[in-house]
């Protein structure tokens, strides 16, 4: 210790300092902290003449690698699911949902992988049980054991809350079919498998070949309920849409039973990405300050842009987003501003880019846009947790037209800004220890400020 303060001890001091700030400073801003660090300490170690390359931001450098230390899980002993069948997938899930960052990766990585793993777990187990769902009691025990196993490998211990996961998600819900034999006599299983055995991750979201096959199968399963109800004179207990959605879950599990776990993961994560990329996951708090500073009659551009940047800084504490989600977020916020009497293109005026809608990784990297195709976090025992970001940055956020719907990647006639290139997985060496500490500090600040950000009167 005489030669200086160790990296891990610096981190402890920084974390304590940030937590104290959270309690003492209601503004909870990391800006002043970041500005106090010398600028040359944060510069990436890459040639300024080189084209920007995809980046793997390292969340946990070697002194922090114990994020993933294994502990002994406390299992109920009552769950009959075969966890060994998805052992490797659960390891990936625990990394995607690693404790400190699960909430920031929830919508793009953690929850899709978590839900996919559960579907495959039940599907693979059905090979022995011939059942595509669990009863309520068993579901409760199995979900608890599932989370305990993940937590023992470093996952966040509040995944059920983060991903809105309940024991009912493991049952058949209102779908009348859960037996494998009955399933296969009710639907055209050969056509379903042909459509979904392997999907084109790029075109499936537009062509919806597999999605249409799943919907058709789910509708056939749902109709069985009306046959049963007509036989005993019972009343319908769930509306048709709810029943079809519950039956889609059964279809997913059947597919997972017919494919190997890796193939099932590709299909199910691809389908979840189609859904996720269509919706902006960010919540937009009130924007009256932007309306006041940037509305019609604006007389001070600096005041307007400072207000916009403060607003965007709170969006950056919510979640990582994909390229396509960033497009939707830009369109959603732009339309809200226009309806609030902001007619000028403040994105162009204030140099707002797509990356500004995602969590900030580090000062020299800025916002990280994740690939629009499914991706996972990576664990390296020497460097820690990382994932792919694309550094083809500074793509201007498009200001939407009130007369047009938000741009869609499926509409070939609509011109949208060039998206960052698909990340090639090359690793940048531009993140040093202090960069990682600043990232964690900003994450801690984000946690402290979540409640404040939700009620800011912008």
Automatic annotation (TrEMBL):
It comes from the Eukaryota. The keyword Transmembrane applies. The chain crosses the membrane at residues 433-457. Residues 278-351 form the At1g61900-like C-terminal domain. InterPro entries: At1g61900-like, At1g61900_C, SPARK. The lineage of its organism: Eukaryota, Viridiplantae, Streptophyta, Embryophyta, Tracheophyta. GO terms for cellular component: plasma membrane. Pfam families: At1g61900, SPARK. Keywords: Membrane, Signal, Transmembrane, Transmembrane helix. Residues 76-224 form the SPARK domain. The keyword DNA-binding does not apply. This is Uncharacterized GPI-anchored protein At1g61900-like isoform X1. Residues 1-28 form the signal peptide.
């Amino acid at each position: 210790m005489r030669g200086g303060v160790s990296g891990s001890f610096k981190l402890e001091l920084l974390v304590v300092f940030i937590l104290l700030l959270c309690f003492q400073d209601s503004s909870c801003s990391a800006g002043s902290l970041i500005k106090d660090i010398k600028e040359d300490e944060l510069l990436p170690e890459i040639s300024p003449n080189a084209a920007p390359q995809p980046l793997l931001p390292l969340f946990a450098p070697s002194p922090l690698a114990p994020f993933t230390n294994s502990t002994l899980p406390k299992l109920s002993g009552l769950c009959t699911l075969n966890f060994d069948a998805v052992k490797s997938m659960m390891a990936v899930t625990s990394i995607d949902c690693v404790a400190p960052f699960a909430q920031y990766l929830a919508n793009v990585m953690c929850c899709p992988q978590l839900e996919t793993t559960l579907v495959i777990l039940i599907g693979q187990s059905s090979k022995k049980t011939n059942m595509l769902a669990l009863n309520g009691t068993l579901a409760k025990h199995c979900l608890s054991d599932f989370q305990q196993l993940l937590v023992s490998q470093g996952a966040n211990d509040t995944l059920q809350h983060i991903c809105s996961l309940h024991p009912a998600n493991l049952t058949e819900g209102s779908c009348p079919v859960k037996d494998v034999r009955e399933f296969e006599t009710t639907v055209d299983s050969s056509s379903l498998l042909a459509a979904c055995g392997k999907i084109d991750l790029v075109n499936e979201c537009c062509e919806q070949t597999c999605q249409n096959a799943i919907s058709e199968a789910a509708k056939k399963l749902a109709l069985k309920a009306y046959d049963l109800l007509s036989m005993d004179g019972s009343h319908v207990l769930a509306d048709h849409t709810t029943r079809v959605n519950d039956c889609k879950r059964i279809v997913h599990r059947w597919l997972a039973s017919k494919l190997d776990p890796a193939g099932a993961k590709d299909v199910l994560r691809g389908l979840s990405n189609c859904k996720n990329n269509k919706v902006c996951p960010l919540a937009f708090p009130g924007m009256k300050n932007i309306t006041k500073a940037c509305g019609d009659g604006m007389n001070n551009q600096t005041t307007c842009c400072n207000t916009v940047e403060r607003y965007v800084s709170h969006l950056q504490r919510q979640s990582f987003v994909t390229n396509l989600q960033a497009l939707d977020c830009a369109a959603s916020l732009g339309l809200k501003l226009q309806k609030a009497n902001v007619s000028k293109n403040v994105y162009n005026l204030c140099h707002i880019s797509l990356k500004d809608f995602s969590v900030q990784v580090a000062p020299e990297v800025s916002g990280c846009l994740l690939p629009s195709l499914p991706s996972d976090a990576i664990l390296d025992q020497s460097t820690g947790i990382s994932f792919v970001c694309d550094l083809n940055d500074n793509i201007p956020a498009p200001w939407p037209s009130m007369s047009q719907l938000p741009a869609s990647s499926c509409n070939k006639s609509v011109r949208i800004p060039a998206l960052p290139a698909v990340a090639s997985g090359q690793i940048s060496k531009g993140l040093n220890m202090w960069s990682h500490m600043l990232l964690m500090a900003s994450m801690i600040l984000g946690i402290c400020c979540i409640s404040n950000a939700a009620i800011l009167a912008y």
